[in-house]
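[SOLVED] Need 3D model of a two-part complex

Original post:
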Amino acid sequence: MKICLFFLAAGALSAQHSYTPSDVQDGGRLFRSNCVECHGVDGNLVPGIDLAHGKFKRASTDDELINIIRSGIPGTPMPPGNYTEFQAGTIVAYLRSLANVGSGSGIAGDPVRGKTLFEGKGGCLSCHRVGSNGSRVGPDLSSIGTQRSPAMVEKSILEPDAEILPQNRFYRVVTKDGQTVTGRLLNRDTFTVQLLDSKERIRSFVLADLRDDGFVDKSPMPSYANKLTSQEVADVVAYLGTLKGIANK
Amino acid sequence: MRTRIIFLLALAGTLSAQVSFDRILHADKEPQNWLTYSGSTFSQRYSKLDQITPANVKNLELQWVYQARSLEKFEATALVVDGVLYTVQAPNDVVAIDALTGRVLWIYNYTPARDARPCCGRVNRGLAILGDTLYMGTIDAHLIAVDAKTGVPQWNITVADAAAGYAITHAPLIVKDKVIVGTAGGEYGIRGFIAAYDAKTGKEDWRFYTVPGPGEPGHETWSGDSWKTGGGSIWMTGSYDPQLNLTYWGTGNPGPDWNGDARPGDNLYTDSVVALDPDTGKLKWHYQFSPHDEFDFDAVQVPVLADIQWKGAPRKVIMWANRNGLFYVIDRTTGQFLLGKPFVDVNWMNGFDEKGRPMRVPGKVPTPEGTLIKPGNQGGTNWYSPSFSPKTGYFYIPAWVNYDSIYVKQPVEYSEGRIFAGAMPQSPVPMVRGSEINLKKNTEGSGAIRAVDPNTGELRWEFKMADVTDSGILTTASNLLFAGGREGYFFGLDARTGEMLWKASIGGQISSGPMTFSVNGRQYVAVAAGNALYTFALRQ
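Solution:
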């Protein structure tokens, strides 16, 4: 009986271990340095596992996760990692933090009002797509609520040039007859480039046939800092947070 | 009639002749074959075959494909002996293929122990052959001899303990009657070594530790017990000079990779080239490219030997494009440093002293906050075979340009069989496997074939790629250069100018070195991409 109590207590202590923001940041650094090769930046590259949203195959508690991070899973590509228990704990703390990030502004938003703004005054569907509505030229936001924290979404609305993810980059080509085509970059290699142009057409170009080509440095998205009020931005952020994609059946 | 019978017997004898060491030494006399990993013991990856030329290379077409039953990277360079091609299906299946048709003749399936844990892929880079026997190192650190006619194993020895992180991924080197291999595992705190085994029995003849033990010269460059986990992997096949009777090997990083606090000193003989007597394993000389390395700058390259005109006089040299971003020319008789020059952007050093030791840039070390280092962790180049063409006189490098990593120092403790490296550096470029989709800007890391003049280290020409490359390079006597990259293109360039003359999209990332051979007078070029081996020849 004593032994059982001891183990329960130890588990509770570990689960209650508090990590400072700096620890969590360190955990994020460890995760990005050692884990993303297989798990991806968002932690969802391995089928059936979504580290950022608590979806694991063989663990549920922090202690179980720490054990897997340190010992690996024999017979799978998951190797043992040479971390102290504390270091492994910071990785878990980082993963837990991904699902619990609040809005940067601190203003409570109304998702119903946000949807109206998104589809109306904001004109967001002219570039973005949600479900079967809107344009495919900009990033599809159907699952944005599972992919980005509210603070990240808010920053993208107010400062769209601050961080443009590689998958959202735009590219411009000028054909030899002078036609300019700009679109979201789908792929490029030494000899060719593929875009989704402003009319949602998939275009492929041979570089040798072009007069000029290159990345568009700035985001095509305007800043909404002067177009929407702080409350309206919070409403849109709240609405986007409700977008969880298509449920698995 | 009698004459005809004798002739037929003689022909049959030729077709199935054993691969003597003399044949390997004179591989240039039979360019229809590819008898050792880099084509010759000088490792130039240069062929005298010249049927395919800059003028007709556009007429190359696919002849056959061998699809491996493996989802691991196909990194092996094939051997070809008298119409039979031998390769390795990752991790460790030996496959014999009719080089004319692509039909499989036999497969030797080997299942490595579950303990096997090579750090960077369950891969194999090729075989060696001597007599009628093929030799393969395995990811669980065994060395296996296999009958080249039947695929039946002849012997199987344990080179090192896989559970402690030891592995073998490179092709063995044959020198005389010995099979020479080294061990990988520098990311697990191994103590690396090169060893020679009797080709007939597998009995160990000698062993050279790349990290010297107590009482041995070089041990003073380690502190305390750090030498016991000092790394010094052997990732790539060595070379051999019969006149000097020296075999040359590149050694890997000291352990732990990215935190050198526990191992103050130069950490000999890591990140070095060592010249050994192949009869005894005794060290003749060494040159260390990256003393006290904390950037994982393995000397993970094939030593390329050549007799060139150096400052107007003939000289026996080794040419070496190192992971640390520098191109070197070294006298291979004495180990004297002759030239060192960056072939990509380098910010961790800014020159050499008179002995060829790199002068470090202050502050360019891993820190808890992170330090940006050029080139990045995978290096200006890596294990991908370079080539030297005696015809053009150029040395060709598969290079990663505009590539850097942020090195973060973190504490690391040794535990047997576990990763002993520190924090993996951060970079926009994936380390060992690329993506089917490339959205990177060239400023975030891209690839190139760079042709360098060995006498000056100056760039002569460059062929740029949008993505980085893990492909080796082949050059031929007709001034052709074959290579590829992560995008799945296999291409032929004019070795004199870098002009692209032909390309084929073969779909998968090319992580192998191209080679060439001929059967019945027809020249083929072969390269592995994705999970398959592709062969091309001129349209008939």
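Edit: Chain B has a mean pLDDT of 95.
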